[in-house]
Each structure stands twice: as C-alpha cells, then as structure tokens.
Amino acid sequence: MSDPLSQVSIVLPVGPGDRSWPPLYAALREHAAAAELLPVFADGDAQPMPADAMRVPKGRAHQQNAGARAARRAWLWFLHADTRLTSETLPALRAFLERDEPALGWFRLRFDAEGPKPLQWAMRANAIGANWRSRRLGLPFGDQGLLIPRLEFERLDGFDPQLAHGEDHALVWRARRAGLPLRAIDAALVTSARKYAERGWLRTTLRHWRLTADQAWREMRR
Q: How many other CB atoms are there within 10 angstroms of residue 15's CB atom?
C-alpha cells in the first residue's frame, strides 16, 4: 500500500535571511520522503540553499504561489520555515488524506517558547486563543500548516501577492465563500515564539489582533 504522503507537495517558503528552515527541511526529508518537497527562497538571499530549491521574487505569497505552480501532486501543504513537526503530525496527516475529502485542513498550534516563565505562559494563552479561533470561527492561519487540494487552490487563484501580510487569512476567507469545508487535522504543529520574545509579547499580540480584525472586517464586507 502506497504512503498517502505521496499525494502531497510540501511548499516551504524561506524569507530573506531566515535561517530557521534547516531543521524542518531535514525532518521532512527523513520522515516525509514520499512527499514532494519544494523549498522556495527569495531572490537576493545570500544564504546557502539546498539543490532542490527555487528562487523567486521575495514575499511569502509570491513564494508559495511559485511552489504551488511547480507542484505535481494532488495536495498542497504550506509550511512556514520556523515550523517544527511533532510525533503526531505525520500520522494525523496520513489519516486525513486517507479520508479523501476535498477540504482545507489545518493543524493545532503550539508555540516553542523558551526563556522567562511569563513568556511561556503568555504563549500558551496565545495558542489556546489561536486554536479556539480556528475551531469556533473557522479562521486558521498559515502557521497552522494549511493543507488544500491543488485544484481547489488553483480555483481560488492562490495567495494574493498584493497583500503585504495576511495572505493566508485572505485565502481562508475565499475558501469559505467558495463553500470549501474547513477541517481540523487532529495533531499539533510547533512554531517559534522568537518574534514575541524579540519584539515584546504584548506589542506583537496586539498588532496581530489589530491586523486580523482589520482584514476580517474587509473580508466580511465583500
């Protein structure tokens, strides 16, 4: 019986100077070898990159769209460079694929928070909020590993390259309007809390809330 991951193209965008990607790349090469892996780097990025990578104009929407155009498998799985898999991630993904349901899938979010205890507790609260938002409001974000059939992604015209941020949020809204079901995949992905530690938890959290609310307001008026 073939591995369900053979149906998946994994699109891994790497921002300029972002050196968080090697652990995820190595884990996918080792544990998801049946999938097609498409690392996409930004033009002008001077860091060494793997032989299977491509270069395109910078911007996560541009990079993810380029990876999707190069994909040859039936499903697209978009992963941020600072994402880390858990022991349950790939088994849950395989189970989801075996159901063969056209849907937009997403994973539970968990933060890898190091440093002071207050930051760790704050990031746990953020994860609870993100998972509640995803399940109750139907608004998962890109750091939750969006999974979508390639034909549905093309029907939705991919990520909007005109957006400076929130391209993942906008895609989810278009999927909802198109009637594509949103389905939770019963596993977690871990993402870095580095930007919260560097920029301040309260400042970063409030900024995300404001941007999310602004974009939700625009999308609801369409």
A: 18
131's CB contacts (< 8 A; 6+ apart) are 108, 109
Indicate yes or no: pTM above 0.85: yes
- Burial (Cβ within 10 Å: 0-12, 13-18, ≥19) of residue 1: exposed
Q: How many CB atoms lie within 10 A of CB 69?
A: 13
- Domain range summary for the chain, segments of one domain joined by +: 4-220
User: Token pair of 126, please?
Assistant: 């953020």
Distance CA 61, CA 124 (A): 28
Q: Are 9 and 71 in contact, with CB atoms under 8 Å apart?
A: yes
Give the list of residues 6+ apart from residue 62 with CB closer than 8 angstroms, or none.
56, 161
User: DSSP code of 164?
Assistant: S
Summarised one tens digit per residue, pLDDT across range 188-217 is 999 988 888 888 888 888 887 787 777 777
Residue indicated by tokens 């992604």: 153
Domain 4-220 belongs to what topology? Spore Coat Polysaccharide Biosynthesis Protein SpsA; Chain A (3.90.550)
For residue 160, how far is the Cα from the chain centroid?
15
| Regions of the chain short of the pLDDT cut 50 | none
Q: How far apart are CA 151 and CA 148, in angstroms?
A: 8
Residues 6+ apart with CB under 8 A from 79: 10, 11, 12, 24, 28, 145, 189
